[in-house]
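BUG: 3D viewer hangs when loading the predicted structure for this chain

Environment: internal workstation, default settings.
Expected: structure renders.
Actual: progress bar stalls at 90%.

Input used:
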Amino acid sequence: MLLKFINTIFNTGTQHTESVEEKTKIKLINQIVFIANCVIIFNIIQNTIFTDWSSVLIVLMFFPLINITILLNYFGKYIIARVYFFFVFLSIVTLLNILYGIDIQTQPVYIIATLLALFMFKEFKTKVILISIIIIVYTLTHYYFQNYESIYADRVYANTKHLYFIISILVTSILTLRILKDKNKLIEISNKLYSEVKDKKQELERFNHISSHHLKTPVRTIKSFTDLVKLELEKGKVDSAIKHIKFIELGANQLNYLINDIMEFSNLEKIYDPSQYEEIKIKDILDFCEKKMQKVAHRKFLINYKNEKDKHSIFSQKSLVELLIYSIIENAITYNDAEIAIVDIKSKIKKKKIAISIKDNGIGIEEKYQKQIFDLFTRLHKDFEYQGTGIGLSIAKKISLLLDASINMESETDQGTTFIVELPL
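C-alpha coordinates produced before the viewer hung:
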Protein backbone atom coordinates (compact mmCIF):
# COMPACT_ATOMS: atom_id res chain seq x y z
CA MET A 1 0.00 0.00 0.00
CA LEU A 2 2.85 2.38 0.91
CA LEU A 3 4.76 1.56 -2.29
CA LYS A 4 1.60 2.19 -4.34
CA PHE A 5 1.17 5.59 -2.63
CA ILE A 6 4.83 6.53 -3.29
CA ASN A 7 4.51 5.44 -6.94
CA THR A 8 1.37 7.60 -7.29
CA ILE A 9 3.32 10.63 -6.00
CA PHE A 10 6.21 9.94 -8.39
CA ASN A 11 3.83 9.72 -11.40
CA THR A 12 1.68 12.75 -10.52
CA GLY A 13 1.22 14.86 -13.65
CA THR A 14 2.75 12.37 -16.14
CA GLN A 15 -0.68 11.83 -17.74
CA HIS A 16 -0.56 15.34 -19.24
CA THR A 17 2.17 14.52 -21.77
CA GLU A 18 3.15 11.72 -24.16
CA SER A 19 6.79 12.79 -24.33
CA VAL A 20 9.18 10.34 -22.64
CA GLU A 21 11.59 13.21 -21.86
CA GLU A 22 8.87 15.31 -20.18
CA LYS A 23 7.61 12.35 -18.14
CA THR A 24 11.15 11.71 -16.92
CA LYS A 25 11.54 15.32 -15.79
CA ILE A 26 8.15 15.35 -14.02
CA LYS A 27 8.98 12.11 -12.18
CA LEU A 28 12.40 13.42 -11.18
CA ILE A 29 10.98 16.64 -9.69
CA ASN A 30 8.36 14.58 -7.80
CA GLN A 31 11.07 12.26 -6.45
CA ILE A 32 13.18 15.18 -5.17
CA VAL A 33 10.08 16.73 -3.54
CA PHE A 34 9.36 13.37 -1.88
CA ILE A 35 12.94 13.21 -0.48
CA ALA A 36 12.60 16.82 0.70
CA ASN A 37 9.38 15.88 2.54
CA CYS A 38 11.18 12.99 4.24
CA VAL A 39 13.94 15.40 5.37
CA ILE A 40 11.31 17.88 6.66
CA ILE A 41 9.53 15.14 8.66
CA PHE A 42 12.87 13.98 10.12
CA ASN A 43 13.71 17.56 11.15
CA ILE A 44 10.29 18.10 12.74
CA ILE A 45 10.70 14.92 14.83
CA GLN A 46 14.28 15.79 15.78
CA ASN A 47 13.50 19.41 16.75
CA THR A 48 10.42 18.27 18.69
CA ILE A 49 12.59 15.85 20.71
CA PHE A 50 14.98 18.70 21.53
CA THR A 51 11.98 21.05 22.12
CA ASP A 52 13.37 23.49 19.56
CA TRP A 53 9.95 24.93 18.64
CA SER A 54 11.24 27.86 16.57
CA SER A 55 13.07 25.40 14.30
CA VAL A 56 9.92 23.25 14.08
CA LEU A 57 7.93 26.28 12.87
CA ILE A 58 10.60 27.18 10.30
CA VAL A 59 10.67 23.64 8.90
CA LEU A 60 6.85 23.45 8.88
CA MET A 61 6.82 26.58 6.74
CA PHE A 62 8.86 24.73 4.09
CA PHE A 63 6.33 21.88 3.84
CA PRO A 64 3.53 23.65 1.86
CA LEU A 65 6.08 25.63 -0.21
CA ILE A 66 7.75 22.45 -1.43
CA ASN A 67 4.51 20.52 -2.12
CA ILE A 68 2.99 23.24 -4.33
CA THR A 69 5.36 21.79 -6.97
CA ILE A 70 3.48 18.45 -7.03
CA LEU A 71 0.18 20.35 -7.16
CA LEU A 72 1.37 22.27 -10.23
CA ASN A 73 2.42 18.99 -11.89
CA TYR A 74 -0.99 17.51 -11.06
CA PHE A 75 -2.71 20.29 -13.03
CA GLY A 76 -0.30 19.92 -15.95
CA LYS A 77 1.66 23.13 -15.27
CA TYR A 78 4.98 21.31 -15.29
CA ILE A 79 7.05 24.15 -16.81
CA ILE A 80 5.83 26.51 -14.08
CA ALA A 81 6.42 23.71 -11.54
CA ARG A 82 10.09 23.45 -12.55
CA VAL A 83 10.75 27.19 -12.37
CA TYR A 84 8.88 27.43 -9.06
CA PHE A 85 10.71 24.44 -7.57
CA PHE A 86 14.10 25.76 -8.65
CA PHE A 87 13.63 29.12 -6.90
CA VAL A 88 11.92 27.67 -3.79
CA PHE A 89 14.64 25.02 -3.52
CA LEU A 90 17.39 27.63 -3.81
CA SER A 91 15.62 30.01 -1.38
CA ILE A 92 15.15 27.33 1.30
CA VAL A 93 18.80 26.25 1.10
CA THR A 94 19.98 29.88 1.31
CA LEU A 95 17.67 30.59 4.27
CA LEU A 96 18.93 27.49 6.10
CA ASN A 97 22.52 28.62 5.53
CA ILE A 98 21.79 32.11 6.88
CA LEU A 99 19.93 30.78 9.94
CA TYR A 100 22.13 27.82 10.89
CA GLY A 101 25.52 28.64 9.37
CA ILE A 102 28.07 26.73 7.33
CA ASP A 103 28.03 23.76 9.72
CA ILE A 104 24.67 22.61 8.31
CA GLN A 105 26.62 21.17 5.34
CA THR A 106 24.29 22.29 2.50
CA GLN A 107 27.00 23.33 0.06
CA PRO A 108 26.54 20.25 -2.20
CA VAL A 109 22.89 21.30 -2.62
CA TYR A 110 24.11 24.06 -4.95
CA ILE A 111 25.49 21.31 -7.19
CA ILE A 112 21.99 19.76 -7.24
CA ALA A 113 20.51 23.13 -8.20
CA THR A 114 23.05 23.39 -11.06
CA LEU A 115 22.18 19.90 -12.32
CA LEU A 116 18.48 20.80 -12.14
CA ALA A 117 19.10 23.92 -14.23
CA LEU A 118 21.03 21.91 -16.83
CA PHE A 119 18.61 18.97 -17.02
CA MET A 120 15.17 20.53 -16.54
CA PHE A 121 15.33 23.38 -19.04
CA LYS A 122 15.92 23.22 -22.80
CA GLU A 123 16.83 26.79 -23.69
CA PHE A 124 20.56 27.52 -23.43
CA LYS A 125 19.83 31.12 -22.38
CA THR A 126 17.60 29.89 -19.53
CA LYS A 127 20.33 27.55 -18.30
CA VAL A 128 22.91 30.35 -18.30
CA ILE A 129 20.59 32.71 -16.35
CA LEU A 130 19.74 30.07 -13.71
CA ILE A 131 23.37 28.98 -13.22
CA SER A 132 24.37 32.66 -12.92
CA ILE A 133 21.74 33.06 -10.16
CA ILE A 134 23.17 30.01 -8.35
CA ILE A 135 26.71 31.46 -8.48
CA ILE A 136 25.52 34.86 -7.21
CA VAL A 137 23.49 33.33 -4.35
CA TYR A 138 26.33 31.01 -3.34
CA THR A 139 28.85 33.92 -3.40
CA LEU A 140 26.59 36.15 -1.27
CA THR A 141 25.94 33.30 1.20
CA HIS A 142 29.66 32.63 1.52
CA TYR A 143 30.25 36.36 2.09
CA TYR A 144 27.60 36.28 4.85
CA PHE A 145 29.40 33.38 6.58
CA GLN A 146 32.68 35.31 6.65
CA ASN A 147 31.24 38.56 7.97
CA TYR A 148 28.22 37.65 10.11
CA GLU A 149 27.30 35.10 12.72
CA SER A 150 24.30 32.85 12.03
CA ILE A 151 21.28 33.23 14.34
CA TYR A 152 20.82 29.54 15.19
CA ALA A 153 24.39 28.27 14.71
CA ASP A 154 24.31 26.66 18.17
CA ARG A 155 21.24 24.57 17.27
CA VAL A 156 22.91 22.47 14.56
CA TYR A 157 22.94 18.92 15.95
CA ALA A 158 25.64 16.39 15.12
CA ASN A 159 23.34 14.15 13.05
CA THR A 160 21.91 17.16 11.13
CA LYS A 161 25.41 18.15 9.98
CA HIS A 162 25.75 14.87 8.15
CA LEU A 163 22.10 14.44 7.10
CA TYR A 164 22.06 17.26 4.55
CA PHE A 165 25.40 16.14 3.15
CA ILE A 166 24.16 12.53 2.73
CA ILE A 167 20.87 13.71 1.22
CA SER A 168 22.79 15.95 -1.19
CA ILE A 169 24.92 13.04 -2.37
CA LEU A 170 21.79 10.86 -2.70
CA VAL A 171 19.88 13.43 -4.79
CA THR A 172 22.97 14.22 -6.90
CA SER A 173 23.35 10.49 -7.62
CA ILE A 174 19.66 10.17 -8.58
CA LEU A 175 19.92 13.20 -10.87
CA THR A 176 23.11 11.97 -12.54
CA LEU A 177 21.77 8.44 -13.04
CA ARG A 178 18.46 9.81 -14.35
CA ILE A 179 20.28 12.09 -16.83
CA LEU A 180 22.44 9.19 -18.07
CA LYS A 181 19.43 6.84 -18.27
CA ASP A 182 17.34 9.45 -20.06
CA LYS A 183 20.17 10.17 -22.48
CA ASN A 184 20.51 6.46 -23.31
CA LYS A 185 16.73 6.15 -23.70
CA LEU A 186 16.63 9.14 -26.06
CA ILE A 187 19.49 7.66 -28.10
CA GLU A 188 17.61 4.35 -28.25
CA ILE A 189 14.38 6.10 -29.35
CA SER A 190 16.29 8.17 -31.92
CA ASN A 191 17.92 5.05 -33.37
CA LYS A 192 14.55 3.30 -33.50
CA LEU A 193 12.90 6.27 -35.21
CA TYR A 194 15.80 6.53 -37.68
CA SER A 195 15.45 2.83 -38.47
CA GLU A 196 11.68 3.18 -38.94
CA VAL A 197 12.09 6.24 -41.19
CA LYS A 198 14.74 4.40 -43.21
CA ASP A 199 12.47 1.35 -43.60
CA LYS A 200 9.52 3.59 -44.55
CA LYS A 201 11.65 5.38 -47.15
CA GLN A 202 12.77 2.08 -48.67
CA GLU A 203 9.20 0.78 -48.62
CA LEU A 204 7.95 3.99 -50.28
CA GLU A 205 10.65 3.86 -52.98
CA ARG A 206 9.86 0.21 -53.66
CA PHE A 207 6.13 0.94 -53.62
CA ASN A 208 6.50 3.82 -56.12
CA HIS A 209 8.74 1.76 -58.42
CA ILE A 210 6.51 -1.31 -58.45
CA SER A 211 3.29 0.73 -58.65
CA SER A 212 4.48 2.70 -61.67
CA HIS A 213 5.60 -0.53 -63.37
CA HIS A 214 2.28 -2.31 -62.80
CA LEU A 215 0.19 0.72 -63.72
CA LYS A 216 2.00 0.98 -67.05
CA THR A 217 0.96 -2.57 -68.05
CA PRO A 218 -2.80 -1.91 -68.47
CA VAL A 219 -2.01 1.53 -69.92
CA ARG A 220 0.14 -0.15 -72.61
CA THR A 221 -2.68 -2.63 -73.27
CA ILE A 222 -5.20 0.20 -73.71
CA LYS A 223 -2.81 2.16 -75.95
CA SER A 224 -1.98 -0.87 -78.15
CA PHE A 225 -5.58 -1.90 -78.73
CA THR A 226 -6.67 1.71 -79.25
CA ASP A 227 -4.17 1.91 -82.12
CA LEU A 228 -5.51 -1.37 -83.50
CA VAL A 229 -9.11 -0.12 -83.30
CA LYS A 230 -8.12 3.04 -85.14
CA LEU A 231 -6.39 0.97 -87.83
CA GLU A 232 -9.33 -1.43 -88.22
CA LEU A 233 -11.83 1.44 -88.46
CA GLU A 234 -9.72 3.09 -91.15
CA LYS A 235 -9.96 -0.18 -93.09
CA GLY A 236 -13.72 -0.33 -92.47
CA LYS A 237 -13.48 -3.53 -90.36
CA VAL A 238 -16.03 -2.61 -87.67
CA ASP A 239 -16.51 -6.17 -86.31
CA SER A 240 -12.78 -6.61 -85.77
CA ALA A 241 -12.58 -3.18 -84.09
CA ILE A 242 -15.39 -4.15 -81.67
CA LYS A 243 -13.40 -7.24 -80.62
CA HIS A 244 -10.38 -5.04 -79.84
CA ILE A 245 -12.57 -2.67 -77.82
CA LYS A 246 -13.31 -5.54 -75.43
CA PHE A 247 -9.58 -5.79 -74.66
CA ILE A 248 -9.50 -2.03 -74.06
CA GLU A 249 -12.36 -2.49 -71.60
CA LEU A 250 -10.47 -5.29 -69.82
CA GLY A 251 -7.36 -3.08 -69.58
CA ALA A 252 -9.41 -0.19 -68.20
CA ASN A 253 -11.01 -2.47 -65.59
CA GLN A 254 -7.60 -3.83 -64.57
CA LEU A 255 -6.28 -0.27 -64.26
CA ASN A 256 -9.29 0.66 -62.11
CA TYR A 257 -8.75 -2.39 -59.84
CA LEU A 258 -5.06 -1.52 -59.48
CA ILE A 259 -5.70 2.12 -58.59
CA ASN A 260 -8.36 1.15 -56.02
CA ASP A 261 -6.11 -1.46 -54.38
CA ILE A 262 -3.09 0.85 -54.38
CA MET A 263 -5.16 3.61 -52.73
CA GLU A 264 -6.52 1.13 -50.19
CA PHE A 265 -3.03 -0.16 -49.35
CA SER A 266 -1.45 3.30 -49.06
CA ASN A 267 -4.27 4.65 -46.83
CA LEU A 268 -4.24 1.82 -44.27
CA GLU A 269 -2.11 3.71 -41.72
CA LYS A 270 -4.40 6.76 -42.03
CA ILE A 271 -7.49 4.58 -41.47
CA TYR A 272 -5.99 2.87 -38.40
CA ASP A 273 -7.44 4.49 -35.28
CA PRO A 274 -7.30 2.78 -31.84
CA SER A 275 -10.10 5.09 -30.64
CA GLN A 276 -12.44 3.15 -32.96
CA TYR A 277 -11.80 -0.15 -31.20
CA GLU A 278 -14.99 -1.97 -30.22
CA GLU A 279 -16.23 -5.45 -29.42
CA ILE A 280 -16.80 -7.35 -32.67
CA LYS A 281 -18.42 -10.75 -33.17
CA ILE A 282 -16.63 -13.05 -35.60
CA LYS A 283 -20.05 -13.97 -37.01
CA ASP A 284 -20.68 -10.36 -38.05
CA ILE A 285 -17.28 -10.13 -39.77
CA LEU A 286 -17.88 -13.32 -41.78
CA ASP A 287 -21.44 -12.30 -42.72
CA PHE A 288 -20.09 -8.97 -44.03
CA CYS A 289 -17.40 -10.71 -46.11
CA GLU A 290 -19.90 -13.20 -47.58
CA LYS A 291 -22.36 -10.47 -48.61
CA LYS A 292 -19.57 -8.40 -50.17
CA MET A 293 -18.26 -11.40 -52.14
CA GLN A 294 -21.78 -12.13 -53.45
CA LYS A 295 -21.82 -8.66 -55.05
CA VAL A 296 -18.43 -8.88 -56.79
CA ALA A 297 -17.75 -12.57 -57.43
CA HIS A 298 -18.31 -13.83 -60.99
CA ARG A 299 -18.40 -17.49 -59.99
CA LYS A 300 -20.04 -19.94 -57.61
CA PHE A 301 -18.64 -20.13 -54.09
CA LEU A 302 -19.60 -21.45 -50.68
CA ILE A 303 -18.41 -20.20 -47.29
CA ASN A 304 -18.83 -22.68 -44.42
CA TYR A 305 -18.40 -21.91 -40.75
CA LYS A 306 -19.48 -23.62 -37.56
CA ASN A 307 -21.93 -22.29 -34.97
CA GLU A 308 -19.01 -22.17 -32.53
CA LYS A 309 -18.06 -18.81 -34.05
CA ASP A 310 -21.15 -17.22 -32.48
CA LYS A 311 -19.42 -17.40 -29.09
CA HIS A 312 -16.29 -15.62 -30.22
CA SER A 313 -15.65 -11.89 -30.26
CA ILE A 314 -12.63 -9.59 -30.29
CA PHE A 315 -11.84 -6.00 -29.32
CA SER A 316 -10.46 -4.31 -32.41
CA GLN A 317 -11.16 -1.87 -35.26
CA LYS A 318 -14.06 -3.34 -37.21
CA SER A 319 -13.34 -1.82 -40.65
CA LEU A 320 -9.76 -3.14 -40.69
CA VAL A 321 -10.66 -6.62 -39.41
CA GLU A 322 -13.35 -6.84 -42.12
CA LEU A 323 -10.83 -5.86 -44.81
CA LEU A 324 -8.23 -8.30 -43.43
CA ILE A 325 -10.55 -11.33 -43.50
CA TYR A 326 -12.19 -10.27 -46.79
CA SER A 327 -8.79 -9.99 -48.53
CA ILE A 328 -7.97 -13.61 -47.60
CA ILE A 329 -11.44 -14.94 -48.58
CA GLU A 330 -11.26 -13.05 -51.90
CA ASN A 331 -7.84 -14.60 -52.58
CA ALA A 332 -9.23 -18.07 -51.76
CA ILE A 333 -12.11 -17.68 -54.24
CA THR A 334 -10.10 -15.96 -57.01
CA TYR A 335 -7.29 -18.51 -57.26
CA ASN A 336 -9.53 -21.55 -57.48
CA ASP A 337 -10.19 -23.92 -60.42
CA ALA A 338 -12.92 -25.96 -58.69
CA GLU A 339 -16.46 -25.78 -60.05
CA ILE A 340 -17.54 -24.35 -56.71
CA ALA A 341 -14.96 -22.51 -54.62
CA ILE A 342 -15.37 -23.75 -51.04
CA VAL A 343 -14.00 -21.81 -48.06
CA ASP A 344 -14.11 -23.47 -44.62
CA ILE A 345 -13.68 -21.11 -41.67
CA LYS A 346 -13.12 -22.05 -38.03
CA SER A 347 -12.26 -20.01 -34.96
CA LYS A 348 -10.87 -20.98 -31.58
CA ILE A 349 -9.42 -19.26 -28.52
CA LYS A 350 -5.65 -19.61 -28.27
CA LYS A 351 -4.27 -18.13 -25.04
CA LYS A 352 -5.06 -14.38 -25.22
CA LYS A 353 -5.78 -14.49 -28.95
CA ILE A 354 -8.42 -15.84 -31.29
CA ALA A 355 -7.18 -18.01 -34.16
CA ILE A 356 -9.27 -17.88 -37.35
CA SER A 357 -8.40 -20.55 -39.94
CA ILE A 358 -9.53 -19.96 -43.53
CA LYS A 359 -9.17 -23.11 -45.69
CA ASP A 360 -9.93 -23.28 -49.42
CA ASN A 361 -10.06 -25.96 -52.12
CA GLY A 362 -8.04 -23.83 -54.53
CA ILE A 363 -4.93 -24.37 -56.60
CA GLY A 364 -2.54 -24.15 -53.65
CA ILE A 365 0.87 -22.48 -53.57
CA GLU A 366 4.21 -24.11 -54.33
CA GLU A 367 6.59 -24.17 -51.37
CA LYS A 368 9.22 -22.07 -53.16
CA TYR A 369 6.72 -19.19 -53.54
CA GLN A 370 5.16 -19.31 -50.08
CA LYS A 371 7.54 -16.77 -48.49
CA GLN A 372 6.83 -14.06 -51.09
CA ILE A 373 3.02 -14.20 -51.39
CA PHE A 374 2.61 -11.31 -48.93
CA ASP A 375 4.93 -9.06 -50.95
CA LEU A 376 3.32 -6.19 -52.86
CA PHE A 377 2.12 -7.02 -56.44
CA THR A 378 3.20 -10.64 -56.13
CA ARG A 379 1.38 -12.62 -58.82
CA LEU A 380 2.29 -16.27 -59.46
CA HIS A 381 0.17 -16.46 -62.62
CA LYS A 382 -0.42 -14.43 -65.77
CA ASP A 383 -3.21 -11.85 -65.91
CA PHE A 384 -5.34 -13.86 -68.34
CA GLU A 385 -5.24 -16.96 -66.09
CA TYR A 386 -6.64 -15.39 -62.91
CA GLN A 387 -8.08 -11.94 -62.32
CA GLY A 388 -6.37 -10.00 -59.53
CA THR A 389 -3.89 -7.25 -58.70
CA GLY A 390 -1.43 -9.02 -56.38
CA ILE A 391 -2.16 -6.55 -53.58
CA GLY A 392 -4.87 -8.37 -51.56
CA LEU A 393 -2.56 -10.42 -49.34
CA SER A 394 -0.20 -7.43 -48.93
CA ILE A 395 -3.17 -5.49 -47.54
CA ALA A 396 -3.96 -8.38 -45.18
CA LYS A 397 -0.35 -8.51 -43.96
CA LYS A 398 -0.12 -4.76 -43.39
CA ILE A 399 -3.41 -4.74 -41.43
CA SER A 400 -2.17 -7.63 -39.26
CA LEU A 401 0.90 -5.55 -38.31
CA LEU A 402 -1.27 -2.53 -37.45
CA LEU A 403 -3.61 -4.62 -35.28
CA ASP A 404 -0.79 -6.54 -33.54
CA ALA A 405 -2.04 -9.71 -35.21
CA SER A 406 -0.27 -12.41 -37.24
CA ILE A 407 -0.86 -14.39 -40.44
CA ASN A 408 0.56 -17.82 -41.20
CA MET A 409 -0.26 -20.22 -43.98
CA GLU A 410 -0.02 -23.89 -44.96
CA SER A 411 -0.35 -24.99 -48.57
CA GLU A 412 0.34 -27.70 -51.12
CA THR A 413 -0.04 -27.51 -54.89
CA ASP A 414 -3.55 -28.58 -55.97
CA GLN A 415 -4.45 -29.28 -52.32
CA GLY A 416 -5.69 -25.82 -51.34
CA THR A 417 -4.37 -23.33 -48.82
CA THR A 418 -5.08 -22.64 -45.15
CA PHE A 419 -4.47 -19.15 -43.76
CA ILE A 420 -4.40 -18.79 -39.97
CA VAL A 421 -5.03 -15.29 -38.61
CA GLU A 422 -4.41 -14.68 -34.90
CA LEU A 423 -6.01 -11.54 -33.46
CA PRO A 424 -5.78 -10.21 -29.88
CA LEU A 425 -9.01 -10.72 -27.90
